[in-house]
Amino acid sequence: MYDSINKKIIAALQENARISYAELGKRVHLSAPAVAERVRKLESAGVITGFSVNIDLDKLGYPIVALVQCKVFRTKEREFKELVLSFDEVVECFNVTGEQAFLVKLATRSMSELDAILDCFCDLSDTNTMMILSTPVKRSVPENFFSLNEGAILNIDSNG
Fold first, then answer.
1. pTM of the prediction?
2. Tens of pLDDT along 22-64?
3. SS3 for 18-63, per residue?
4. Using an 8 Å Cβ cutoff, are 124 and 76 in contact?
5. Same structural domain for residues 79 and 101?
6. Which of 24, 36, 108, 134 is found 20 to 30 A from 7 (Cα to Cα)?
């Protein structure tokens, strides 16, 4: 079950995925082995799917970040997916509902580099490009997860 301790563990890991089990244990008032077991169970249940790092793309030399809505031409979806995978500048790609079947997030070093990629996309889709100015909200889970009634959440064995 996602009890209050598991919620605190998830919140702490979302804030700092490198936190030690000892420090995490202090925060939730459990031993390090008990916390490690809870994290292992959350991983086994597929709740925690990995640990990552947040990167400032601008500081790495990729100041242009854009979202591109792509309406892929009929029968060109497989070819479009292959094209998207061929660009290192694609950092995320979502297959979404609606007329614009794909939403592609690109990070480039310049506008001319972005333009060249968009030219390639136009061979297989109609595009609509939006430049990302800022990211005022970035979360792994909805904030209300931490305040939801425990009975309303999926069960995971939390012994430990």
1. 0.80
2. 999 999 999 999 999 999 999 999 999 999 888 999 999 999 9
3. CCCHHHHHHHHCCCHHHHHHHHHHHHHCCCCCCCCCCCCCHHHCCC
4. yes
5. yes
6. 134
**153 pLDDT higher than 90:** no
What's the CATH code of the domain at 31?
Answer: 1.10.10.10
- What is the CATH classification number for the domain harbouring 67? 3.30.70.920
Please state, rounded to an integer, the average pLDDT across all residues of the chain: 91
Which element (helix H / strand E) includes 8?
helix 4-15
Q: Is the model more confident about 85 or about 11?
A: 85
Considering the domain architecture, whether residues 96 and 34 belong to the same structural domain is answered as: no
Unique residue bearing structure tokens 């997030």: 105
- Give the range of the structural domain holding residue 115, as residue numbers without chain letter: 58-131
CB crowding 24-44: b at 16 or more within 10 Å, else e: bbeebebeeebbbbbbebbee
Q: What values do phi and psi take at 42, rounded to 5?
A: -65, -35
